[in-house]
Known about the structure:
Layout: E1 2-6, H1 10-22, E2 27-31, H2 35-46, E3 56-60, E4 70-73, H3 89-106, E5 111-114, H4 119-131, E6 140-142, H5 146-160, E7 167-168, E8 171-172, E9 180-181, E10 187-188, E11 191-192, H6 193-199, H7 206-217, H8 219-227, H9 232-246, E12 251-253, E13 256-262, E14 265-271, E15 274-277, E16 280-284, H10 291-313
Parallel strand pairs: 1-2, 1-4, 2-3, 4-5, 5-6
Antiparallel strand pairs: 7-10, 8-9, 10-11, 12-15, 13-14, 15-16
Helix pairs in contact: 1-9, 3-4, 5-7
Amino acid sequence: MKIGIVGSGLVGSTAAYALIMRGVGREIVLVDKNAARASAEADDLLHAVPFAHPLTVRAGDYADLAGARLVIVAAGSNQKPGETRLQLLGRNAAIFREVVDSVLRHAPEAALVVATNPVDVMTHLTARYAAAHGVPSARVIGSGTTLDTARFRALLGRHLGVDAQHVHAYVLGEHGDSEVLTWSLVTVAGVPLEQFGAQRDRALTAALRAAIDEQVRRAAYHIIGGKGATYYGIGSALARIASVILQDQRALLTVCTPLPEVSGVADVTVSLPHLVGGGGVLDTFPPALSADEAAALQRSAGVIRAAIEGLEREGLLDG
Length: 319
């Protein structure tokens, strides 16, 4: 099973490493405009294979993606310190038409997993370009708030003293400043958050909620400010999404994909709980939110819609 990764920078190469550690796929092909970087990363990654799972890693060009079941798109500029994801839009949108066309010309059956920020808008853009090749939007999936959801669960798990895998909590909307932490939906072992916290004598005070919200919502700014980029978390998230698709696991993930309407906002790409399997996004489950959360999700969808309209005005969403 072949997996392509376009962009062998920190995110793309870390995603490849996570795939190797998880044993996802049989062959990984790295494609990058900097061929020397792709070759060096492929060699380094190959040397990790004997310590993990048997697969091959190599550098190549777009033609080497032929037969790939899935292609991760991690090309584009990195987020700069203090820069919002939406500010990245103008710098990253221009390269995507060529990338998407090149990938689908050689791997027309591949599912596309978008990692480039701002991921919601870039996924919307990718789906428009992919449609020109007859690819349904369900096969175009952005990493969305998969990482934000993991951050939320990890912080709650640490506070509650429980394995984060048993914390059911979602971050919805934009992967960015307007994202929505859905506190009203959080359960642990089927027990509502407040009840579980009380039983464990670890109450969720307003101050603690605000601190967790800040650590989730501003995580990228903190990490980028300290070391220049985020890559371990998103690399692991991409490997998880790839595993779900390639193994048809039918998992519920907060990825993003184009939708006809979200909270009254038409034609927008934001993260919601989606059922994901071999065919890509199989179904969508908009949750029952509190009034405040529902209003926040509508605002978040509006932020993305405004960015998409800006692209439309510039003619960047023409197929």
